[in-house]
Structure formats: structure tokens, C-alpha cells
Amino acid sequence: MKFLFDLFPVLLFFGVYKYGDSNQDWAHRMALEYLGPLVAGGAVPQSQSAILLATAVAIIATVLQVGYLIARGRKVDNMLWLSLGVIMVAGGATIYFHDDLFIKWKPTILYWAFALALLVAQVAYRKNLMRSVMEANIKLPDPVWDKLGYVWILFFVGMGLLNLLMAFVVFRTDTSAWVSFKLFGFTGIFFAFIVVQTMMLSKYIKEEDA
Q1: Which residues are within 8 A (CB) of 198 and not within 5 positions of it... i.e. 6 or more apart?
Q2: Please, are residues 95 and 56 in contact by the beta-carbon 8 Å criterion?
Q3: Residues 6+ apart with CB under 8 A from 11
Q4: What average pLDDT does the structure give for the chain?
Q5: Residue 203: is its pLDDT beyond 90?
Q6: Which residues, 6+ apart, have CB-to-CB distance to 32 below 8 Å?
Q7: Each residue of 117-140: pLDDT tens digit?
Q8: Where are the domains of the chain?
Q9: Three-state SS for 174?
């Protein structure tokens, strides 16, 4: 359930974009009606309508995520706050300038912000954030925790670079393909990374069970 909750804005972004891209007249009317006052000059190009609508919905969905947790008296983790800040800035710039350049940078900025936060915490403050998250479920020797922290840093750096490659090289002229990769490609890579990590750490899990 938490996975679906975390993926909620991405799923809505994907759904709204795909529907708007297939129904461009509808997307253009909706963008003009609801986003026109927020766009520089008030003019919404039809070619950008779907991405602008999807971006606006993703911003609203992320705000609702935070609002829901606060209303339920639950803690809003730092990653969600960071995600909200990045989507507000990158998404807001996309809508205002009616340019998908900014929202395409959003995953890279977010991944690199995660990597930077992990690196600063581990190097400057001697605090392993991945250990803080995972230690309740698995016990590892200190050197392994240190290596695991750096592995996650490299993973997030790599994901940020991969997004730039896909957004501005491979799918430079095909925003629809990039939107699909953003959901399915990154999710698949993330799960594959978790599986490989679990296999590599399985010997420590077995030792702990024994």
C-alpha cells in the first residue's frame, strides 16, 4: 500500500498525459480553462497542453499526499517534503513557461538531491540514512552499512544520469515515450536494484535468523 501511495502522483501524471495526448482538443480546452491564467502570456500551445495538465495534476497529487499525512497525524518523511519542493518548482516552471524542459529535469534533480543528502549525512555527519531506514528490518556489520550507503548514492546518481539520457537524447522528440519510461522503466530498475541488493545481503539475513 505504501508503494502505491508513493507512486500516486507518478501514476496520475502518466494517466493524464496519455489521455490528453490521445485527446488533444480536450487537453487544449482544459489547459486553456484551468491553466491559462498561470501561463506566461496566457497562451497555451496545443502541443504542450497534455504535459501541462499532467504536471498540474502531479503537483496537486503531491500536495494531497502531504496534506493527507498531516491530517492523519502521521510524519511526513523528508523525501516526500523534498519531492514536493522539486515538483512545485520544476512543475511550476513548466506550466508558467509552457515548456516541458523543466518537468523532464525533475526526476534528475530529485535523484541527485537524494544522493547529495545521503552523501552529506554519511561523510559530514557520520550518519548513514539508509541504515536509519533499514536497520529495523536487517542487521548488518558497520562496514557493510557504509558500503550500502555509498551504493545507494551511486544508484541515485546513475538514475539521474539515465533520466537525462532518456529525456534529452533517446526520447528527445518523443515526450510520450519518456513519460512511459518514467513510470515503467524507472520502477522496473528500482525493483531490480532492490532484488539484487536483497540477494547480496541475504547471507547476513540468514546469519541473523540463525
Answers
A1: none
A2: yes
A3: 4, 183
A4: 92
A5: no
A6: 44, 49
A7: 999 999 998 999 998 888 877 888
A8: 1-99, 100-210
A9: coil
State the alpha helices, DSSP H only, in the chain: 2-22, 24-35, 46-71, 78-96, 101-124, 129-134, 142-165, 175-180, 186-209
Please list, in sequence order, all residues whose beta carbon lies within 8 angstroms of the beta carbon of residue 111, skipping any fewer than 6 positions away: 156, 157, 159, 160, 163
Q: Average pLDDT for residues 158-167, to the nearest whole number?
A: 98
Residue type, 32: L
* Positive or negative torsion for Cα 11, 16, 21, 23: positive
Residue 191 CA: distances (Å) to CA of 3, 131, 186: 11, 19, 9
56 residue type, one letter: A
CA dist., res. 12 & res. 86, Å (int)? 17
**Spatial contact of 3 and 175, defined as CB atoms under 8 Å apart:** no
User: What CA–CA distance (Å, rounded) separates 139 from 148?
Assistant: 12
Can you give the pLDDT at residue 210? 46
pLDDT in tens, 21-45: 999 999 999 999 999 999 998 888 8
Judged against a pLDDT cut of 70, whether residue 206 lies above it is answered with no
Q: 68: which 3 cell numbers?
A: 493527507
Please name the amino acid found at residue 174.
D
C-alpha cell at 80: 516526500
What cell was used for 90?
520544476
Contact 184, 132 (CB under 8 A): no
